[in-house]
Amino acid sequence: xxxxxxxxxxxxxxxxxxxxxxxxxxxxxxxxxxxxxxxxxxxxxxxxxxxxxxxxxxxxxxxxxxxxxxxxxxxxxxxxxxxxxxxxxxxxxxxxxxxxxxxxxxxxxxxxxxxxxxxx
Length: 120
Known about the structure:
Distance between the termini: 76 Å
Structural class: alpha+beta
Oligomer: single chain
Shape: elongated
Strand order of the largest sheet: 2-1-5
């Protein structure tokens, strides 16, 4: 039992209630964050405050602040996040390294400068 679980002050009780509510809401569910992307993420429980747990995207995508207030959706839709599907927890891994979906820019200098044909 962690220190926050034994405390009875209002803040500790509110945090514990939030943790319990969110963990129950995402039991056997996937997570869809609000916003334009609307990707469906796998869920894992992560340590939060004082040893409490909070459900977060398994790919370590940053959790939207409003998600703590219940704004993220618990869904049964299949996971479509490439990082979650690849099992890669590093959010800085470029997607092309995971699924080939993004191409890297070739920034090496070439021997000939790019000059439009009409200026040659």
